[in-house]
Structures are given as structure tokens and as C-alpha cells.
Amino acid sequence: FTGSKPALSRGVKGFTDSYMRYGQTEEPSIPVAELFPNGGFPMGEEQEHPGAYNTYRIGSEEKKAADRMQEDLYDKVRHASEVHRQVRRWAQSWIKPGIKLIDMCEAIEEKNRQLVQESGLKAGIGFPTGCSVNHVAAHFTPNGGDQTVLKEGDVMSIDFGTQIDGRIIDCAWTVCFQEQFDPLLEATREATDVGIRTCGIDVPLNEVGAAIQEVMESYEVTIDGVTYPVKCVRNLTGHSIGPHQIHAGKSVPIVAGGDATRMEENEFYAVETFGTTGRGHVIEDMECSHYMKNFNAPHVPLRMPSSKRLLGHINKTFGTLAFCRRWLERDDGGSAAVNGSNGQQTKYLGALKNLCDNNIVQAYPPLVDKVGSYVSQYEHTILLRPTCKEVISRGDDY
């Protein structure tokens, strides 16, 4: 069963109800774990590691044994990936011009919680739903009261995450409704796919950036009669991912000329590319919504009781996972499993600023190209297994 309902937006392939092949309902309502009661969640796309020095891996008994040793971990990340696929396929069935961004994000997040069986730091949302429109490239999610509506002429990237035991699936795509934007989306999707194909054990990260840039910048796009070269956003990158750590220290550049650090066996990476009609360089701008506790936050004696209280709430509800202001204002403060219905944080902005000033929490404001430009994003999470690389978040949509 491949499905029967097409997406309402451009930029994705296939049918949105393809998850019904697993016995899922339309709309999805059954937690993914219940669709696969014995584990064995669907595998991602397997690709061979590039390079002559890696050809032995696919048939090596030693490497196959190393793979088998980690079946539990693989099943966990495949579980999180299947949740991500079902949530996004469902979202693709109703995202259309006229919806409020805040309603869209809350619906995606609620479905994510439902299908992953949200239970605090054990399972839930990986980070806030990014819905970056037009010249905004990343790190935008509506704050409470934001009335922004999606328009027919908009280009919006949707970037959300699912986590199980701190293993985060980070995966994004772009939505548009006008054919004129197709080359921009295609450039970004192709660049991401070539980046993924270039990745592998012992591959220098700068080679990945060079491959991405070559593909991305071979495209141009004509919007309202004006032709633009598609550029990479040179100061945005993909990144390695660790347990409870969305950015684990290594960057995957999307232009040539970075450093030659090599990728290593058993690493997870988010491979993401950003194509733009603008400058190809982003800056921080607009009101901040995204925050995250520093992974190596210092132990600072806090003088403000409100800061201590907020930090306690962040520690138990999010740990070192990213969160947003909307979640702090929910009745459950971001997690029903942790806080029940009395987690809501009020008058917290001063405390939040104090935690940021003390380098305990980091603010991540929206990143924007020049006004009037359009930015597209595609992203997948990959795992460099001993035998092969697995594009764990790959779906029939992109």
C-alpha cells in the first residue's frame, strides 16, 4: 500500500497516508510502538560507505558482528524515525495557505507526543518545530500570541525532531505552493542527497561541503520574472548528534574549504543544506523563541530564586534538549509525563535572561538572510554503521 492522498504542498513525493500499510489509522492515532509490538521498526535507506578503502565493510564478518552488537540502539533510532515519518506525512496532508503557523506547530508537536508516547526525557519531541518562512532560514517557531498565517506565495521549511532515550532524529523539508519555486527546492533536496552520498567513515568533512556546494550552485530559479543563482547559506552547517546533544561538536559544511576532520564509525550526523536566493549568509534577527541548556553548563550559584526554580524546571523537563517559550507556557510546562497539568511557567522572562547571562542556557534567535529572499532546507539524520551508512530518517516523501 503506497497511499492515495497526495500532499497539499509541493516539495514532497508520494502519498501522505502511506503509513496505513503498517495498520496505522487515518489520521494517525496509534503509538508507533504498538504497530511494531516486537520491535523490528522499518529500516532506513542503506548506502555503501564511499571510497575503495571502505568496500570491504559490507561483506566483513567482523563488521557485521559489530552491527549486530548495536541492534538495540538501531531499533531505538528507527522507532524515532518512524514516528517522525508518520507525523510529517500526516502534516503534509493538511498544511496549506491560510493556516496559522502557531496552530500548525502545535498540531505537529501534539501528534509527535502522541505517536512517540511522550514520557519526559525518555521519549518525546527532540526540539521545537521550526517553521522558517521566506528569508528566515532557521530557529523560528512562533511565540505565544503570534498570529502569522502561511500565504500562497510563501516558501517555508519545517524542521522538527523526535527523540527516544535522548537519541534525536533531526529531519526537515520545504513547503511551497507555486511551481516557480520548484528549482530552489530541487537544488536543496539534491544537494542534501549528494551530501549524504558523499558522507562515510573516514571521509573528510570538507569533501562533503564541496560536493554539496557544487550541486546547489548549479541551479538557478526564476521568481516573478527575475532569475537568481541558488547559493548555499555558507554559515549554516549540518552537525554530529550525540545522546541528548543535538550539536555534538562536528560540523558538516555546505560549502567548500572547511577543515578536513574525518567522519568516524558509529557517528550520527544531521546532513542539512540551505539554498537561498539571497546573500548566502545569515544573521540573528527577530524575537527569540529557541533556548537550550548548555551541554557543559557551569555550576553557578544563582542568586535569583526565580532563576533557580526555572532551572529546576528545565533540568527535569528538557535536560539538555532544546525548548521554546510556547512550551514553558503550556499547562504541562513542556511535558505532561513530568509535570502533569501544573508545569506552567509564568513571568519567567527575567529568570530566563538571567540563566542566559550566566551561560547556563543559550538563546538561539532566528537566523535570517536578506528580506525579500527565499531560503529552502532539506535534512536527514544518518548513522555511520560499521557495515554501511543508514539514512535513518529517509521516507517515501524525500
Compile the SSE list and pairings.
Blueprint: H1 32-35, E1 45-47, H2 61-69, H3 71-92, H4 101-116, E2 123-133, E3 136-138, E4 155-164, E5 167-176, H5 182-198, H6 205-216, E6 220-223, E7 226-229, E8 231-232, E9 238-241, E10 251-252, E11 268-276, E12 283-284, E13 290-293, H7 305-317, E14 323-324, H8 325-328, H9 336-339, H10 349-357, E15 361-364, E16 367-368, E17 375-384, E18 389-391
What count of helical segments does DSSP give?
10
Can you tell me the overall shape? globular
The beta-strand count equals 18
Mean pLDDT: 98
Helix content: 25-40%
Query: Nearest-angstrom radius of gyration?
Result: 20 Å
Strand content: 15-25%
H and E order: HEHHHEEEEHHEEEEEEEEHEHHHEEEE
Distance between the termini: 18 Å
Q: Pairing-aware structural class of the strands and helices?
A: alpha+beta
Task: Give the biggest beta sheet.
Answer: 7 strands, antiparallel
Low-confidence stretches: none
Question: Would you write up a description of this structure?
Answer:
This protein has 398 residues and is of the alpha+beta class. It has 10 helices and 18 strands. It has helices at residues 32-35, 61-69, 71-92, 101-116, 182-198, 205-216, 305-317, 325-328, 336-339, 349-357, and strands spanning 45-47, 123-133, 136-138, 155-164, 167-176, 220-223, 226-229, 231-232, 238-241, 251-252, 268-276, 283-284, 290-293, 323-324, 361-364, 367-368, 375-384, 389-391. Strands 1, 8, 9, 10, 11, 17 and 18 form a 7-stranded antiparallel β-sheet that branches. Helix 7 (305-317) crosses helix 10 (349-357). The mean pLDDT is 98.
